[in-house]
């Protein structure tokens, strides 16, 4: 039986950090700039995310609700560009702007995606100045983000959502595939168990205990500032997004977003 004694303290810490709204995570989210963490995430954790393919399918179905092909999109905190890659494949005339503040991640992105359809920008979207750097490649028909914005304090998340609203074309969609705060301890237990089981399936040579230890002590975990998906949907509605909903959720993983009115 897996013990989950740490979650209460972690959630308390997350709440505290979120309430303060200050960027206490600045140093900790820098872990993503490490080549070692990039390699571990891309070769281990990313592939183990439960129903990852379904999440991407939901994202594509939402983008299709615009009823026009995507021409220009932004993948924010793109990592190796897994979300943008799905858009490029679905829409052969689309071009994407891929933003990340980790050079090893952008390198992984460039190595996998067609250079003639991709602009990569090394930017920290935690700082409002990122908008000017990206504006020249917009406005966008679609903005997507995967498991990235939860490193920002809540106040910055809300400001960022406002920036994304302005960067969208009327009718454009913002879809966030995101790690969100569990509403109760059971959600958290189920999430950890599913991740550990899935990573263990990929790494049968490691003991389950070792996989669990690595998962709960992973470097990026302490950089998480999870917010409930209900709150985030409320923020999007207040900004002016229409059709806002959580369209899919499994445990702590949600696909939510909305459309800029036409
Ligand atoms: C968990 S990875 C997810 C990568 C990818 N979106 C995916 O779905 O697999 C989070 C990514 O967000 C990036 N990131 C985190 N904070 C960022 C920031 N403030 N500015 C730009 N990129 C950031 C990290 O470097 C990392 O590549």
What does this protein look like?
By secondary structure, the protein is α/β, with parallel strands linked by helices. The chain has one domain: Rossmann fold. About 45% of the residues lie in helices and about 20% in strands. It is built from eleven helices and seven strands. The chain has helices spanning about 5-20, 25-30, 35-50, 50-65, 80-90, 105-110, 130-135, 155-165, 185-200, 210-215, 230-240; strands spanning about 70-75, 95-100, 120, 140-145, 170-180, 240-250, 255-260. It has a seven-stranded mixed β-sheet with strand order 3-2-1-4-5-7-6, sandwiched between helices. A hairpin with a 2-residue loop joins strand 6 and strand 7. The radius of gyration is 18 Å and the shape is globular. The termini are far apart. Residues about 1-25 have low confidence and may be disordered. The structure holds S-adenosylmethionine. S-adenosylmethionine (SAM) binds near residues 78, 124 and 146. The site of S-adenosylmethionine has 21 residues, from helix 3, helix 5 and strand 2.
